[in-house]
Amino acid sequence: HDTMRPAREQHERIKMRLRLAGSSLAAVARELGVAATTVTTVSQGARRSRRIEAGIAAKLGVGPAELWPERYSAPESTPRHGGDP
């Protein structure tokens, strides 16, 4: 489906950048002590994990918001106004 294409392309770009940096999603998984499939699903956008997103970004020397701007610019990340349930 069309909505998955940008996430898939983004995932492929992340994998390419990791390869160019001499790393991989599997290497990130080993360092974080999680399954490689877990890191892959986070990179693909099928699952969220700030810890894994941060681990991938750190390997590339960037912040997670640079790799996944749509995940870090959501309305929930804006300051809350007090008192609302």
Automatic annotation (TrEMBL):
<protein>
    <recommendedName>
        <fullName>Ner winged helix-turn-helix DNA-binding domain-containing protein</fullName>
    </recommendedName>
</protein>
<keyword id="KW-0804">Transcription</keyword>
<dbReference type="InterPro" id="IPR038722">
    <property type="entry name" value="Ner_HTH_dom"/>
</dbReference>
<feature type="domain" description="Ner winged helix-turn-helix DNA-binding">
    <location>
        <begin position="12"/>
        <end position="78"/>
    </location>
</feature>
<dbReference type="Pfam" id="PF13693">
    <property type="entry name" value="HTH_35"/>
</dbReference>
<comment type="similarity">
    <text>Belongs to the ner transcriptional regulatory family.</text>
</comment>
<keyword id="KW-0238">DNA-binding</keyword>
<dbReference type="InterPro" id="IPR010982">
    <property type="entry name" value="Lambda_DNA-bd_dom_sf"/>
</dbReference>
<keyword id="KW-0805">Transcription regulation</keyword>
<dbReference type="GO" id="GO:0003677">
    <property type="term" value="F:DNA binding"/>
</dbReference>
